[in-house]
Design brief:
By secondary structure, this protein is an alpha+beta fold. It has 11 helices and 5 strands; from the N terminus they run ααααααααβαββαββα. It has helices spanning 6-24, 41-47, 58-72, 79-95, 98-123, 127-209, 213-242, 259-270, 291-311, 349-360, 384-388, and strands spanning 275-281, 315-324, 327-335, 364-370, 373-381. It has a 5-stranded mixed β-sheet.
């Protein structure tokens, strides 16, 4: 059931009562009229109820109001009827369709001009200008006021929507940043600790499976060394996460200059598995690389060595690093086959991390069996502009 707003009901009742009071007191606007005095009540009583529909049916109310205010000019006239019409004109612009809101100010402006010109041509008196002014006050003024208010409302609504969209985009950016940071932390944690834990797992398994004091002593030495190094790496990562302020001491970023030490540690860890490690660095000396590329290449080699310790059969693991045509190529070849003896479990997170590191820099990554070797190959952009882009 339709229930008009309370303000509209109050406006309709007050308008009609005010019109009745003016009529009863004999206050009217037209001295020259064609109809009896009571006829002025007909437009008033017809327009009054239109106030109840001013929001829901603005087209209908404006049409009835226009007919009513024209009919009122043939009676003694009632000021309340004219005021009701101005409100209906205002409501038609504010609550009507956008097309109506655009047309009415233009239409009423043209009507005002036409009425002014017509009465000037007909009466040829200064008073005829007042007729044009009154016409503008009655129709053009409310339409212009309604259009101004509607434009302000639409601008405010658009600003609110933009603010909501900005807040939504900011929240999405924050969520994506959190996800990206968590992924980066996971890669760093895996790359720094997995190598040491894999060596611990392999040597502890060897010590348990081979009942020899010498083997156990050697395995315990390797386990202790990897435990100490793993704890140091873990403390460094925790320190980075706990305090990222300016007072924190600078932490050296791993680079390709540390590959010799990395392979040296891998030789110690892989001795029990019959693995040897060879580095072939074919880069020209004195050619710097962007820091992100250095770190990614180092981590890819580190993770490849970890995977070799876990899964490679006895043999030689070859690490090749070369730079040509603006690309840094990192390739690690590990002996592939059925490995006897202890083997550390794997989850596949290392391959995912290497691929993510490569793709974040716009490079290409591949890993798989190539004959009797398992080959990991990554091509990274070696130029600063390519990395920044």
């Amino acid at each position: 059931m339709f229930r008009p707003p309370r303000d509209d009901v109050l406006l309709a009742v007050v308008s009609v009562l005010a019109g009745l009071l003016l009529w009863s007191l004999g206050i009217h606007m037209n001295d020259r009229h064609l109809l009896p005095a009571w006829a002025a009540l007909v437009p008033l009583l017809a327009l009054g109820p239109m106030e109840l529909l001013r929001r829901t049916a603005p087209n209908t109310t404006l049409a009835v109001g226009t007919v009513g205010v024209i009919a009122d000019q043939f009676t003694v006239g009632n000021l309340a009827t004219v005021l009701i019409f101005t409100d209906l004109m205002y409501a038609a612009v504010v609550y009507g369709k956008p097309a109506m809101a655009r047309r009415l100010p233009i239409t009423t402006g043209l009507v005002t001009i036409a009425v002014t010109v017509a009465f000037l041509a007909w009466l040829r008196t200064p008073q005829s200008l007042m007729i044009g002014v009154l016409t503008g006050i009655v129709c053009f003024g409310p339409a212009l006021t309604g259009a101004t208010l509607r434009n302000h409302r639409e601008a405010a609504e658009a600003a609110r929507l933009r603010a909501e969209q900005t807040a939504l985009l900011a929240e999405m950016d924050r969520s994506q940043a959190v996800v990206a940071e968590r992924a980066r932390m996971a890669r760093e944690l895996h790359d720094m600790v997995a190598n040491h834990l894999s060596a611990i797992a392999i040597h502890s398994t060897a010590a348990l499976s081979i009942d020899s004091p010498e083997t156990s002593r050697e395995a315990l030495g390797v386990i202790r060394e990897n435990s100490v190094q793993g704890l140091a790496e873990m403390r460094r990562l925790i320190g980075l996460l706990r305090d990222a302020g300016a007072e924190q001491e600078a932490v050296a970023t791993p680079s390709l200059d540390g590959l010799d030490a990395l392979l040296g540690q891998a030789r110690v860890n892989g001795a029990a598995s019959g693995l040897d490690f060879v580095l072939l660095d074919e880069r020209a000396p004195g050619e710097p690389l962007p820091a992100p590329v250095e770190l990614a290449a180092y981590r890819i080699v580190q993770e490849s060595l970890t995977n070799a310790l876990k899964h490679a059969v006895p043999g030689t693991v070859r690490v090749r690093v070369a730079r040509a045509d603006g690309l840094l190529t990192v390739r690690v070849d590990s002996p592939y086959g059925d490995r006897p003896g202890p083997r550390a479990p794997g989850s596949g997170a290392g391959l995912v991390g290497m691929q993510e590191r490569t793709e974040l820099l716009g490079g290409e990554f591949s890993a798989g069996r190539a004959g009797s070797v398992w080959q990991v190959r990554a091509q990274l952009p070696a130029e600063e502009k390519a990395v920044a882009g």
